[in-house]
Amino acid sequence: MSAPAPARVETASLAGMALGIGAYTLFSVHDAMIKGVITALPAAQILLVRGLVVVVLCVLIGRRKVVKDLLKSRNLVLILGRGLMTLAAWVMYYSAGRELQLAEMTTLYYVAPIMTTILAVVFLKEQLNLARVGGAAIGFFGVVVAANPSGFVLDWPVLMVLGAAFCWAVAMIFMRTISRSDGTLVQVLAQNLIHVALMSVLVLPAWQGMSMTEWALCVAAGLVGGMGQFTLVEAARQVPASVLGTVEYGALIWSFIFGYLFWGEMPATTVYVGAFLVVAAGLTLALSEHRNRREIVDAP
């Protein structure tokens, strides 16, 4: 076994988790931008504009090659499935944003990592250890504490967010599978092409006028969301879906910060307790993955 190998594998593991944290941080910024326009614009129209922004970016970066690679992909069915799942997730999630606070939306949505972990075991045959199960359980418990479930009413906005969480979990499994053979830019382009095509049919006949501020927020959401999508796919190449799902809990903290800064949503004491548990779960999992990688590489 060569000497440099341990460092390479350790870096890959921790770098993948860091990319996952970065991706979900970007998505938190993205969600805050969408929250700023969702009460004025239909969710489908917002998704169309942001999707167009991401498609243009992908073509400018990848040019003809990214289009050719997409057309030659052996995973077109999975790519279509992932595009439809993410589209359904975002339409339901943003539509619920008309009725729920940002922190409420994010908290409910974080049942998705639990679903991702279960699906990863069933369909990807990923192996779970005590740290992964414990990290997911502690992170989810932290979300529940922060949410203060007694304040929730099981109505349509809540059900839409839970439905969005399931669609996102399925999309994560598709993404992990596609990432084994298709490039990151190909996946991001394909997903947003699907969104643009479907949303155009729904939105263009009943287009709603937009102010400069609304245009700016939608375009900015496209830029930030596109970076988040790219970073997330890169993370999926380096860490199992079950681990990446647990990393997702860290973004909960940002939702409370942005909710306070932009909408004056005051976190309760339980929020701080829950946030501490979420961070503790992420750090524990990161240390465990780092140690396991090192043991595998150093084994004779």
Number of strands: 0
As a percent range, the share of strand residues is under 5%
Largest sheet: none
Please tell me how large the radius of gyration is. 19 Å
- Alpha carbon gap, first and last residue: 8 Å
Overall geometry comes to: globular
Count of discrete structural domains: 1
Level of helix content?
over 70%
User: Poorly predicted ranges (pLDDT <50, ≥5 residues)?
Assistant: 1-12, 296-300
**Class from helix and strand fractions:** mainly alpha
Instruction: List the helices and strands in order.
Output: HHHHHHHHHHHH
Average pLDDT works out at: 79
State the helix count.
12
Can you give a write-up of this model?
The protein has 300 residues and is an all-alpha fold. The protein has one domain (5-298). 80% of the residues lie in helices and 0% in strands.
Topology:
Blueprint lengths: L4 H31 L7 H29 L4 H21 L5 H8 L2 H12 L6 H18 L8 H23 L5 H20 L8 H27 L2 H7 L3 H13 L5 H30 L2
